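Subject: Predicted fold for Response regulator ActA, 342 residues

User T.R. writes:
Posting the sequence so we have a shared reference for the thread.
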Amino acid sequence: MGFEAVNPGWASKSGGEKFTREGGTVGVRRKRVGKAGQPPTVLVVEPRAADLERTRLLLAEAGFRVVPVTRFDAAVPLFEVIRPAAVLLDAQAPDFAAVQVARRLRQLTHGAVPLLYLVDERDAEARRYCLERGQCVDLVPRSGSGSELATKLHAQLKLKDAVLRAAAGEEAGTAQALHDPVTGLYNRPFLLEFISLEARRAERYGGGFSVVAAEVGGWSAFRKEFGRGMAERLLVYSAVVLGQTVRDADAVARVGDCQFALMLPGTPAESVPEVVSRVAARFDTARFQVEGKVVRTSLELGTVSFPDSVGTPTQLLSAAQQDMRRAREFRRMVGSTSRLSV
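User M.O. replies:
I've generated the structure tokens; pasting them so everyone works from the same file.
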């Protein structure tokens, strides 16, 4: 395969509660065990051998099975062989190869495998680059103890497991109770529980998330003209478009008659405009046919981000919907002003 890797050094600890390093005692969670009775595997990609070895030791002590590699061009082939539970990518100037690898891994996994960028705390350029162009991948700084890195990884894997269990109906009785019967998307109760889970994770381990509210423009008038059956077909069509636009790691839910909401884990406020632009652009090109005629769909959008805004899950969803309504009223005012000035 032609990649350079440090000896993986599989974790040999038996799940102890504490360990001592550099004169201090650090709390460590017990090992998370995978399907085959093994701890979760993490692929770590760092070109600097010393940093790579340090990260490997920190994660091994925290109960992870670590596969270290020093070359970014080996990351994707190695990923396809070992299929790790999570991936850590060292982000640094000038080429920021980690971002390109993250993009490829998201395409390969449909966003289902947690990714994290390792960023030096004093590297403002790397932090800014990852926030603006990092494919909505979460960041973790290099700290002295490395505890934040381990806890973030545990949190990401725990969140992923919880969502998968909920989607399978293991925690809510049946999967049908979590889905909207018309569109097949998640429903409002599931979305609120997901927001609550992510808020608790962010409060404990840091990071953030965003919620996007969306409403199909002119849906009430469309239903009045063409009937409820055709209006529901428009909702299903809109749901498909939304599902094709967001990452698989995100959750799309129907929260009202013609309203949807997107839950974006690990997505800070700085990354939301790119997501909103992508969703809006996708709907601008979408076409829905009724009786042989093409009907253009439009989408009203509003956002809220945690921890910039805090509150209960219902309050956060309401804040995103309020932002959506404010944006709609602003466009109407601008349109009225433009017509008056002509």
